[in-house]
Amino acid sequence: MLSFTETARCDGARTGVVRTPRGQFVTPTFMPVGTRGAVRTLTSADLEDLGTDVVLANTYHLMLRPGAELVADRGGLHRFMDWSGHILTDSGGYQVMSLEPKIDDEGATFRSTYDGSTHRLTPERAAEVQALLGSDIAMVLDVCPPLPSPRPVVEAAVERTAVWAARARAAHRSLAPPAQAQFGIVQGGTDVALRRRSVARTLDIGFEGYAIGGLSVGEERHERLEPLHATTESLPAERPRYLMGVGDPVSIIEAVSVGVDMFDCVLPTRLARHGTALTSVGRLNLTNARFARDDGPLDPALAGDPAGRWSRAYLRHLLMVGETAATRILSLHNLAWLFDLMHATRRAIAEGRFAGHAAGVRATWEP
Fold it and tell me: How far apart are CA 117 and CA 113, in angstroms?
């Protein structure tokens, strides 16, 4: 079963190793989002070449297309994707909530974004789907209100998430393969008291790891750190902590500073589709005319950059003529850049210089 070992600490930041029956990965780590079983424009071979440790896949989308039962018949998601690394599946809760479903105490009823058909997702069904997919880490179904929301709405989400988590845990124990771990999710918005209440309720159930949901859903970044810190300091040190849906460099560094271990976000590939590269000097929007005659590499500071053989001028040309190769190249680059940031962050923690490293990231990336 899944375990976590802390290997170094510098102030509130830490490095660690997550071990599972599949193998192990080091933290802090960033997980690319492969919503439908693939990271946009990339293959499993690409992810291997980039050194990816964990890929996130989406329960909601895979239960609709092609269907969890079909994936299970193909030998599970790892075999279906031809991916030997770790897979974390989210519960589909965030996607379902964004569709304005009908929610009751039992679950959520929603319409498919593909064909308009009606579907029902309960804590038990979310656990069943993830068991069929065969991921290494499964998430409980939670209620994730947007921010800002009135306190009674956030409080109700905390209560329902806790009740659903207990049901999801029971379903996981009866349905999931022995190698699959399950993470609980803490809600509470930016309200510190609600965060601590949610932590207590989730710890009472007990999970292999703990996720922090309900942030990066509309609040300002400066509103996030206090409730995030209140959450991490209340979570057990011997379990991994996962901040859901955060991928910008400053937010990652701030979360690492209070002990977060795992991150996921569509940001690197979404930026790539819009012609934006993550670099050591900040974001570069390659559609800008100033790059039309720029023969330099995308980021000379990134060793082994998969985009390093092509000039900024050439990549801009591909973008301007709508050539999909540009999105693929930029996606590879952006993920490589984020992985390099995580490596540098782990090294800074291990060497006792995290504060200086964090200050450098802020100096480059803060507006």
Answer: 8
The dotted CATH code for 3-265 is 3.20.20.105
Express as a percent the part of the chain with pLDDT over 90.
93
What's the pLDDT score for residue 96? 65
Catalytic residues: 90, 264
Smallest CA-to-CA distance from 334 within 244, 287, 273 is with 273
Instruction: Find out whether 215 and 228 touch, Cβ atoms under 8 Å.
Output: yes
| Helix, strand and coil percent figures for the chain, each rounded to 5 | 45, 20, 35
pTM over 0.85: yes
CB distance 296 to 279 below 8 Å? no
- Rounded Cα distance between 48 and 53, Å, is 8
pLDDT digits (tens, 9 = 90+) for 41-86: 999 999 999 999 999 999 999 999 999 999 999 999 999 999 999 9
Q: Sort residue 78 into left (φ over 0), alpha (ψ -120 to 50) or beta.
A: alpha
Domain boundaries, the chain: 3-265, 267-367
**Angle subtended by helix axes 312-320 and 324-350, to nearest 10:** 130
